[in-house]
Amino acid sequence: MRRGEIGSYEGGERFCAFVPAPLPPKPALVLDGSLQQMLESAVLALGRLDGVATLLPDETLFLYTYVRKEAVLSSQIEGTQSSLSDLLLFELDEAPGAPLDDVVEVSNYVAALEHGLRRLREDFPLSNRLIREIHRVLLLRGRGSDKDPGEFRRSQNWIGGTRPGHAAFVPPPRTAVPDCMTALERFFHAKEDGLPVLLRAGLAHVQFETIHPFLDGNGRVGRLLITLLLCHAGVLRQPLLYLSLYFKQHRDTYYDLLNHVRRTGDWEAWLAFFLEGVKLTAEGAVSTAQRLSRMFQSDRSQIEKAGGRRAGSGLRVHDALKSQPILSLSAARRNTNLSFQAAAAAMELLITHGIAREITGKRRGRLFGYEQYLSILNEGTEAEADR
Fold first, then answer.
1. What is the pLDDT of residues 326-375, one digit of tens each?
2. What angle do CA 19, 22, 26 make, to 5 degrees?
3. Which of 41, 175, 241, 288 has a Cα at 20 to 30 A from 62?
4. Contacts for 190 with CB less than 8 Å, ≥ 6 apart
5. Same domain for 327 and 272?
6. Chain segment 238-268, per-residue pLDDT in tens
7. Looking at the structure, do residues 329 and 263 belong to the same domain, yes or no?
8. Does residue 223 contact residue 242 with C-beta atoms inside 8 Å?
9. Can you give the pTM of this predicted structure?
């Protein structure tokens, strides 16, 4: 449904800043047969995703790596060039040659997400205060640390172009940001509109991107907001749904639809795209979890064939690699309580079976990667020039 522009313009001769009307949309959303069916399919896929975590041998392993994959993807949309391997190496304090600013930016994203989820588990409300806390963690170090971390902007920003007068889009003036964000916070918790949680998350994401309340980091916080809303509402028990890969693969459509909603009020067109993304992303996450579970079991069976103490040491190093897909022998020794010699022999066993691979080509300071595990996790995260 085309409702006309979903806000008003404020400004002088040089530019006009767009102030979005509060949610929910007026007139109300039209959930016709097609959109209702898409909503039901997305909810069903989310239910399967929420259930698959309980079937994993170690849910925390999947979360550890899946969160990091999302951090890489979300940051790549903003132009970083780091890979998942760069991030894992950085977390080992052994990242030679990695683009430091980019890796720090991705690492901050992991910390920001974990901070937000921890606060929700502590029954802290999903609120503007929490959003500002997440933003502060996101911009704590590296690029953007001079852009008022944790504070709503006190100056005008814009999207595209060299100045507001030539911009593709100009968000609300700084004086309107507090009221816009207060209205959005009320929408997070509204009950009287009867909106399903998934639709609320989809609408809130567009509204946040339109307000653009921070000087930097809006895109990453806006994508985090989707997951936080679903976890806060209890739709997901664990943070397993991330749409960054879908948005990255359909970037032009994504940005076109954000502008389309602002110009026309056609929220249904955006929600159709959003719900399709939720469905595809949830199905992809379920498939990935199942593939990893089968791979871990197959690799374990290969190691067990060695028999005796050798197999026992190999299984312990295998578990260490599941926890950290890139590992030094020193870290393997610490994580398994094996002697250095036993850990080295166990790693050689994994190399023989094609499970692990030495990735530095050095004699000293060698690092070993869980090859197939990394290959699965890296799908879709190939760094590219996104700016």
1. 999 999 999 999 999 999 999 999 999 999 999 988 888 899 999 999 99
2. 110
3. 41
4. 24, 200
5. no
6. 888 889 999 999 999 999 999 999 999 999 9
7. no
8. yes
9. 0.89
